[in-house]
Amino acid sequence: MANIAIFISILPVVAAMLLYQIDPFDPAPYPDHELTRNGEPLFIPKRNSHMLLGSEKIGYGELPAPEDIAYDPKTGVIYTGCVDGWLRRVSLEGSAADFVVEEWVNTGGRPLGIVHGIHGEVIVADADKGLLNISRDGVIELLTDEADGLKFKLTDAVDIGPDGTLYFTDASYKHNFKNHFEDFLEGRPNGRFLSYDPSTTQTQVLVKDLYFANGVALSADQSFVIFCETAMMRCKKYYIQGPNKGSVDIFVENLPGLPDNIRYDGEGQYWIALSTDTSVWKLAQRYPFIRKVIAMVDRYIGRPSTEKNGGVIAVDLDGKPTAHYYDSNFSLISSGIKIGEHLYCGSIARPYIIRLNLTQYPATPAPSSSSSRN
């Protein structure tokens, strides 16, 4: 009887070990030079660690997973793309209860990044369809969905240059939006930063071998374009003008979370959405076997909920942090932008946009000893 009891007790362990061996998922080690390059945690002079206190829910129940937020100052309307394929327009009027949500165009895919074009059109990075142009009348045109013989699998974010060139990311040419979590766990650089020239209809790969290329923002002086590299907790800049044209440099690194979209507010600050803090990811990033176990749990049981302390970090024109807004109960934040005195945040999980009055609930000075939580 004792032998039977021992056998029964170790059977689950043996089964788990066998499943681990035969599971086809094969994560790669992240490069050693990347894992050791991060220095001291960023010092962020101001913070609001309870940003959900005082926040409002805009369009509750009418905005399923509003991933990006694009504001049109001419009309006072926010454009956002939702998980059901709809691009929705939200009028900014009064209190949260007064906001009006309108269904505008359905792309038939998963609209993510959005930018307003030069001639009144809306450009959309659709994860499933590619880079789209949508006219004022709602007519959808596919601009591009491949480069260098590789189809986009996860067209992610987009911004527009001074000459009308579109700069955008393909987060992964291997994993689609539904399976994007596997791209992080796999540990291979499947992302690309690209450009599309409307005058020639040419698509060009500007930077390849990126670890989940994400948010895109043109610099205030229009000399470079910033793009986020989520799995590496940093944002880079690609010079489009001047003596450094065509080169890449670091804009900000060692962020206190995984960056998603980045937006410039026109007032000297970029706002970088952080989907979650880095506590779990930094450990998983170092050890492929941990990432494989996480992938197996995600596949056979369900994705474990480890995300926390999501929010938005503001940085100045040089990439130096100025303020951090986050909350321990906040996660999967995908975009953030300051409009007037409010911060608006999109999400890939919540059915609404979050709005916080920055005047009433500001970030306050933080002691240097608590510059980072990770």
Please characterize this protein's 3D structure.
- The protein has 374 residues and is mainly beta.
- 14% of the residues lie in helices and 39% in strands.
- It is built from five helices and 28 strands.
- It has helices at residues 2-22, 32-35, 180-186, 279-286, 288-300, and strands at 46-48, 56-58, 70-72, 77-81, 86-91, 100-106, 111-116, 122-126, 130-134, 140-144, 146-147, 150-151, 155-160, 166-170, 191-197, 202-210, 213-218, 224-229, 234-239, 248-252, 259-264, 270-274, 310-315, 321-327, 333-339, 342-347, 353-357, 364-365.
- A six-stranded mixed sheet has the order 21-22-23-24-1-28, with no helix packed on it.
- Strand 4 and strand 5 (86-91) form a beta hairpin.
- The model is unreliable at 11-16 and 370-374 (pLDDT under 50).
Features:
374 residues; mainly beta; six-stranded mixed sheet; four-stranded antiparallel sheet; 28 strands; 39% strand; disordered C terminus
Helix content: 10-25%
What is the overall shape? globular
Determine the structural class based on helices, strands and strand pairing.
mainly beta
Radius of gyration from CA coordinates = 21 Å
Distance between the termini: 49 Å
- Strand content range: 35-45%
Mean pLDDT: 91
Q: What is the strand arrangement across the widest sheet? A: 21-22-23-24-1-28
In total, how many beta strands? 28
Taking the sheet with the most strands, its summary is:
6 strands, mixed
Low-pLDDT windows of residues: 11-16, 370-374
Give the helix tally.
5
